[in-house]
Design goal:
- By secondary structure, the protein is an all-alpha fold.
- It has 2 domains: 33 residues; 69 residues, no CATH class.
- It is built from 3 helices and no strands.
- The model has no long low-confidence stretch (mean pLDDT 84).
């Protein structure tokens, strides 16, 4: 009888500590690796950083297109832009011309 009481007095706290440690371990694991854990937070920050870089590139491209469209607005067309687009579209070059196209219009 004394052995059972002593055994019970030892095993019940050990069991409770083990269950408590398992619960804490479960929550710690999911706090680190879960859908809303620290790893997910790092991944979201990385994606935000990449999208911010992409946004800056798109803003620069948008500004370039705004500049180019401003040259052909309201009835006045810049002669250089018209000639550049005509040569690009038709592929026509004079014998003594040297043409260098700048930008990402096919030059990779």
């Amino acid at each position: 009888m004394v052995k059972r009481k002593r055994m019970r007095a030892i095993l019940i706290p050990v069991f409770l500590y083990a269950v408590s440690a398992a619960v804490v371990g479960y929550f710690l694991f999911h706090a680190q690796n879960g859908a809303r854990g620290l790893e997910a937070k790092r991944e979201y920050k990385r994606q935000i950083f990449e999208k911010a870089i992409e946004l800056e590139a798109l803003k620069a491209e948008h500004a370039e297109w705004d500049r180019r469209t401003a040259l052909v607005r309201e009835g006045k067309i810049d002669a250089d832009i018209l000639e550049e687009e005509a040569r690009k579209t038709l592929g026509h070059v004079h014998a003594n011309d040297v043409i260098v196209f700048l930008g990402s219009h096919g030059a990779h």
